[in-house]
Amino acid sequence: MKMTGHQVNPCSRCVVALVVAGIMMLPMTAMAIDDNHHLVKMPEAKQVSLVVGKSTVLDMPTVIKRASLADRQVADAIVLSPRQIYVTGKGYGTTNLTLWGKDDQVIAVFDLDVGVDLLRLRQHLNELLPDETNVHLKGTNDHVTISG
After folding, report:
1. Environment class of residue 42 by beta-carbon count within 10 Å: exposed (0-12), middle (13-18) or buried (19+)?
2. Residue 58 pLDDT > 70, yes or no?
3. Is residue 97's pLDDT more than 60?
4. Distance (Å, whole) CA 93 – CA 72
């Protein structure tokens, strides 16, 4: 039997696939294109956890010119002053909030995670089950996992 081209060991394909998957899982620096078509580095996203129906005030070190939310069904944001923004959890889920400064450069990106009020739930469980000291709660969107 005559062979043309070259054969690739099936095991080599697995190694290549694992290397590619590993590279794709590495943290990547967020990049954007500016008005002059230059690649610019975006600020690293800051994590903010919110509860549906509750809010927080984010203080910024520089003046905020503009704010944008990816999903207004999950959260709402209002600029209170040139350096403060008021963020409210509206619905379960995640979204991001991007803030621009006076020079139209992105000054901050916030990853907003809106979920269940685990603190209040924990207080209720402690009242109902005072002898249970090893209860653990984990919230994801509108779901709560209780273990212990």
Report:
1. middle
2. yes
3. yes
4. 11
Rounded CA separation 122/137 (Å): 8
At residue 142's C-alpha, the angle toward residues 43 and 89, to 5°, is 50
List, for residues 13-53, the tens digit of each pLDDT value: 544 444 444 444 444 445 555 566 555 566 899 999 999 99
Average pLDDT over residues 91-99: 95
The values of phi and psi at residue 31, to 5°, are -130, 155
What residue type is 103 in one-letter code?
D
pLDDT bracket for residue 89 (50, 70, 90): very high
Taken in order 100, 105, 59, 83, the sign of the CA dihedral is negative
* 3 state SS for the chain: CCCCCCCCCHHHHHHHHHHHHHHHHCCCCCEEECCCCCEEECCCCEEEEEEECCEEEEECCCCCCEEEECCCCCEEEEEEECCEEEEEECCCEEEEEEEECCCCCEEEEEEEEEECCHHHHHHHHHHHCCCCCCCEEEEECCEEEEEC
